[in-house]
Amino acid sequence: PQGIPGDPINVGLVGTQKEVVHAFAVAGWDTADAVTLKTAIEIGESVLFDHPYPDAPVSRLLFDGRAQDLAFEKPEGISADRRHHVRFWQTDASGDDGRPLWLGSASFDRAVGFSHDTGAVTHHIGPDIDAERDFLMRDLATAGMLLSTSDISGVGATKAGRNGGGDLYFTDGEAIVGVLKQLP
């Protein structure tokens, strides 16, 4: 819903949509399924019965009034209760090479539970969102997908922020922007 804070923007990528999807696939991340009744049941079964669902849905969050354009995840363990994940929104801005700039929010889902604010079933994030930002960029770099990275000012240093699920987080407030290798 509008007005409820999500996870802060802490990453960015410069590249086409095809290049973003390719980079995450090479780095071992899965594209998240859309949220539907079927996928909601599947993620519930994954968590309850501890079985894999590597492309489990990621909830819809808004940035500039729009839901994310892309979402990726990398499970930690068997079920969908613990996972690295990121949402990306394509912006109107572009990199020096004219390719689109995508802004994203990377965080680690540490458990499933009830939202502290709404009571809805949701994932709870780990508090150190900078560690997740760095993990994501390290994965892309290790996979050979990044030409360069740079730091930009993000939300500002936050010692005790809260997201829409009521989870505490802290951050140095910086975002890392990676320029992806171009596809031939």
Structure overview:
The protein has helices at 17-26, 37-49, 129-142, and strands at 11-14, 30-31, 62-63, 66-67, 70-75, 83-94, 100-114, 121-125, 146-153, 158-162, 168-171, 174-180. It is α+β, with helices and mostly antiparallel strands and 184 residues long. It contains 3 helices and 12 strands; from the N terminus they run E-H-E-H-E-E-E-E-E-E-H-E-E-E-E. Strand 3 and strand 4 form a beta hairpin. The radius of gyration is 16 Å and the shape is globular. 20% of the residues lie in helices and 39% in strands. The protein starts with 10 loop residues before the first strand and ends with a strand. The mean pLDDT is 87. Strands 1, 2, 5, 6, 7, 8, 9 and 12 form an 8-stranded mixed sheet that branches. The chain has a two-stranded antiparallel ribbon with strand order 3-4. The protein has a two-stranded antiparallel sheet with strand order 10-11. It has one domain. The relative contact order is 0.24.
Provide the descriptors you would attach to this structure in a database record.
single chain; 184 residues; alpha+beta; eight-stranded mixed sheet; two-stranded antiparallel sheet; 20% helix; globular
Low-confidence stretches: none
**Gyration radius, rounded:** 16 Å
Taken as a percent bin, the fraction of beta residues is 35-45%
The geometry reads as globular
Beta strands, count: 12
Number of helices: 3
Q: Distance N terminus to C terminus?
A: 40 Å
Structural class: alpha+beta
Q: Could you report the average pLDDT, rounded to the nearest whole number?
A: 87
What count of domains describes the coordinates?
1
The largest β sheet comes out as:
8 strands, mixed
Q: How much helicity do the residues have?
A: 10-25%
Order of helices and strands: EHEHEEEEEEHEEEE
